[in-house]
Specification:
The protein has about 120 residues and is α+β, with helices and mostly antiparallel strands. It has helices at about 15-35, 85-95, and strands at about 1-10, 40-45, 50-55, 60-65, 75-80, 105-110. The longest helix has 20 residues, at about 15-35. It starts with a strand and ends in an 11-residue tail after the last strand.
Length: about 120
């Protein structure tokens, strides 16, 4: 089963040097997951100052700067992994460097039938 591991943290908690070190540790973790056949994809996200939110209200698009919700922690990146069950996904999530100062949300991914998808 596929799981999305969403990494939330206060984006101000790390300086640039610490952020680069986190990227290196995350890349190493991705290599280890790949070797174990569990890796699908990963990426850090730009700052929330670069975010734009879209909502449709009364048939009209409403675009606002920033993330949708005001929170202390922001979505900073993700890992998409293959794990045999929730316990295995949780074991992967605890290895993500950001879990040490933020939160990693673990959510199963709904697999849509291929005929619903392009290509």
């Amino acid at each position: 089963m596929r799981y999305m591991l969403l990494i939330y943290a206060d984006e101000q908690v790390l300086n640039q040097e610490e952020r680069e070190a986190c990227y290196q540790k995350s890349a190493q973790l991705a290599r280890e997951m790949h070797e174990a056949g569990q890796f699908i994809s990963t990426a850090p996200l730009q700052s929330v100052s670069m975010a734009t939110s879209v909502r449709v209200r009364d048939g009209k698009r409403v675009v606002t700067d920033g993330p949708f919700a005001e929170t202390r922690e922001q979505l900073g990146g993700y890992f998409m992994v293959e794990a045999e069950n929730l316990d295995a996904a949780l074991a992967l999530a605890e290895r993500i460097p950001g879990a040490a100062w933020g939160t990693v949300e673990v959510r199963p991914v709904i697999e849509l039938p291929k005929e619903m998808l392009p290509g």
